[in-house]
Amino acid sequence: MRLTDFWTRLGEAFGPAYAASIARDQVLSELGGRTIEQALAAGVETHVVWRAVVAAYPDRVPARLR
Questions:
Q1: Residue 45 gets which letter from DSSP?
Q2: Which of 53, 56, 55 lies closest to 12 in space, CA to CA?
Q3: Looking at the record's lineage, which domain of life comes first (predicted)?
Q4: How far apart are CA 14 and CA 9, in angstroms?
């Protein structure tokens, strides 16, 4: 998954402002206790980060974006 696709999906699932907040502030255990931004900066593959988002917010991410 390209990084632009990742950000588009995150924005579609949460809305642009909330997506930015989640990426910056929400620590996910699935990412080793890092935020989305920290995981991406550390070189974690975007598809791995996206799977972590889906696992953390299963009711929020629509099936078409999974």
A1: -
A2: 53
A3: Bacteria
A4: 9
∠ CA 4-39-5, rounded to 5°: 15
Segments of the chain with pLDDT less than 50: none
Helix-helix angle 3-14:16-25, to 10 degrees: 110
Going along the chain, which residue ranges are E strands? none
Q: Which helix (H) or strand (E) holds 35?
A: none
- Where b means 16+ CB within 10 Å and e means fewer, 26-54 reads eebeebeebbbebbbeeebebeebbebbb
d(CA 20, CA 13): 12
Distance CA 34, CA 40 (A): 10
